[in-house]
Write a structure and sequence with these properties.
Keywords: Methyltransferase, S-adenosyl-L-methionine, Transferase. 29% of the residues lie in helices and 14% in strands. The radius of gyration is 18 Å and the shape is globular. The protein is an alpha/beta fold. The protein has a single domain, classed as Vaccinia Virus protein VP39 (Rossmann fold), CATH 3.40.50.
């Protein structure tokens, strides 16, 4: 595998695994399929003039599509007309600002991290971004039940949840378990980043909810959508009957 990586030219390389689909029983809902098709088409026309106007603190990944997920993020938020978006993992804020650009009037994106945005030298944020309440950062670990407890009512309002956590093989699973214990009446769409990174493959594979891999229109390292409350049929066995 190392030799294959070495002889394949690319700016950034990660090891991954190819897995069969016939024994992956959790299928997407029609809602997910239709949403993905609309959002992929919409993403082709999205631009980010606000980000373009800011001094670059890191490469402008949001301009890359397909390959990066920022235009798809904005397209999904716009298509869903999501009034409450929750992001797990603020980092430099490129994703947060991409989401905010597509919010409808009265919409908000609430981003969670354990590190304040202004402690990062590469942050894309300005203090003014938080003035009108469209962007809010909470410093809390909501991957654990005790951290989630103060925010249960917020998550009950979520239309869209974006998970861009550390990919350490633990944090995302903890969040899935914690989120699964909540009642989410607005039937949110949940988007996972980096689903093809080695530490994430098992977590994505064993997620027992209607889901759809849309990496071709999202992040090169893997993008997946989940219809969190959806009911989907399971794939029929290919075994001879």
């Amino acid at each position: 595998m190392e030799q294959a990586l070495l002889r394949t030219p690319a700016r950034h390389k990660l090891e991954s695994i190819i897995l069969s689909s016939d024994d992956e029983v959790w299928q997407p809902t029609r809602r997910l399929v239709d949403l993905a098709i609309r959002a992929a088409s919409r993403a082709a026309d999205i631009s980010f003039p606000d980000l373009d106007s800011r001094k670059a603190k890191e490469p402008r990944w949001y301009r890359t599509w397909p390959g990066e997920h920022y235009r798809l993020l904005a397209a999904l938020v716009a298509d869903l007309e999501a009034l409450t978006v929750i992001e797990i993992g603020t980092w430099t804020g490129m994703g947060t600002l991409s989401i905010a650009s597509a919010l409808p009037p009265g919409g908000r994106v609430v981003t969670f991290d354990i590190v304040p945005w202004n402690s990062l030298k590469r942050s894309w944020f300005r203090q003014a971004d938080f003035a009108d309440g469209r962007i809010v950062q909470h410093l809390a670990d909501v991957t654990k039940p005790e951290g989630m407890e103060p925010y249960r009512s917020l998550f009950a309002e979520a239309d869209f949840i974006f998970i861009d956590a550390p990919k350490d093989g633990v944090t995302e699973q903890n969040f899935i378990d914690t989120l699964g214990a909540l009642t989410l009446p607005k039937n949110p769409i949940v988007m996972f980043d980096d689903t093809r990174v080695l530490n994430m493959i098992h977590i994505w594979r064993q997620l027992k909810r209607p889901k759809l891999d849309i990496t071709s229109f999202g992040h090169w390292s893997g993008t997946g959508l989940v219809d969190w409350n959806g009911k989907a049929g399971t794939r029929k066995s290919l075994a001879a009957e």
